[in-house]
Amino acid sequence: MPQSPASPTNSENPSNTAIPKAIPKKKGKSLPPKPIIKLGKFVWTTMWRVMMSNLAPRDRQGAYIRPATQFHHSIHVDGTYKPAADRYHLYVGMSCPWAHRTLVVRTLKGLEDAISISIVSPAPEEGGWILNQPEQGCRTLAELYELAQPGYSGRCTVPVLWDKQTKAIVNNESAEIIVMLNAELNQFAKYPDLDLYPLELREQIDRFNEKTYNAVNNGVYRCGFAQTQSAYDLACRELFTTLDELDGVLESNRYLCGDRLTLADVRLFTTLFRFDIAYYGLFKCNQRRIQDYPHLGAYLRDLYQIPGVAATCDLASVKRDYYGNLFPLNPGGIIPLGPDVTNLLAPHDRDRLSIEN
Q: Known Pfam families for this protein (predicted)?
């Protein structure tokens, strides 16, 4: 006799096998057992501390200590490294705020034809920067440092101001390189009359540089690389106290030192550009975004919209290199989709301050 449609042997069970009952889920916690959690936390914390000890040297309180740069020669008409066109070369990483300073000044002064550049990218697996294209027989930045100074054992950082004539590193301190670019190559600059470090403002510029370096430029790293809660708390409070102060200064000044663009603005700009993109989330600098400040936000837009400056800002590299390569801070390597930085092109209305002053 034919099976009825209600029989177990129908199209939904053609093999006429018994249908097992659903297995009830076990009641209990969704996390692994406590001993496994404790072991995992211990192993991860230990590995994190080892990796951070190499990435970010610390003091006894767990605060980040930035290693000093080691090449401090100068371009000068009376020195070993004399001003010349196409003699000097910059090695830069597009995500690095310190290297970014040199690109901004190179653009503002119109030195693109006088100073060539090469791009390097971070390679965590190799423990440093690699050249996007091999040069001087070197594939990594460490090999370039070794070429310049055999036996070199310090950190291999960007930017690097390289002398192509003698195959030597002139300088690897961004604060000093931008002073040289501003003053020592004017005969080769498209805009030689632009002085970003005028004598009459130097004392004021230096005060702002000291303030912004300690609390903001390096302050974001002191937050992100802090290895104790107390070290982080101190750095974060100093950071936002200083940002609040700067926002107050910029209420009546178009730029930090009045209505004139200076190196103090360049040094602050490269940190502000990365702030909402990387430091706010990854470095835990999340009390406020720069775009939430009424004056700092507009100031950032003003600087970004200076002709040529936006072309030095590589959003994709910043996100990829911070989120993708700082493994101890972002183990999964997931790169966020945001933020939307089209707001940097919005009107800033800060030119009125120059007119008023």
A: GST_C_2 (PF13410), GST_N_2 (PF13409)
- Of 272, 255, 112, 270, the closest CA to residue 196 belongs to 255
* Residue 142 and residue 290 in one domain: no
Decide if 55 contacts 128 (C-beta within 8 A): no
Respond yes or no: is residue 221 known to be catalytic.
Answer: yes
What was the pLDDT predicted at 127? 81
176-198, pLDDT tens digit by residue?
A: 999 999 999 999 999 999 999 99
Same domain, 238 and 347: yes
Mean pLDDT of 47-65: 72
Tell me whether residue 157 is annotated as binding.
Answer: yes
What mean pLDDT comes out for the span 347-356?
A: 89
pLDDT at 241: 98
Per-residue tokens: 25: 């889920």
CATH code for the domain in which residue 335 is found: 1.20.1050.10
Q: Per the annotation, does 155 bind a ligand? A: yes
Average pLDDT over residues 128-140: 95
Count H helices, E strands: the chain? 11, 6
Residues 6+ apart with CB under 8 A from 4: none
Which is the catalytic residue, given 81, 88, 91, 221?
A: 221
Q: Residue 83: inside a domain, yes or no?
A: no
User: 174 a known binding residue?
Assistant: yes
Catalytic residue among 96, 223, 236, 285: 96
Lowest-pLDDT range, 40-44, 48-52, 217-221, 237-241? 48-52
Q: What is the 3-state secondary structure (H, E, C) of 242-303?
A: HHHHHHHHCCCCCECCECCCCHHHHHHHHHHHHHHHHHCCCCCCCCCCHHHCCCHHHHHHHH
CB 138 within 8 A of CB 131: yes
**Boundary residue ending a domain (188, 208, 243):** 188
96 is catalytic: yes
Instruction: Residue 167: count other Cβ atoms within 10 Å of its Cβ.
Output: 11
**Domain containing residue 207:** 199-356
Domain count, the chain: 2
Of 84, 92, 139, 80, residue with least CA distance to 113: 84
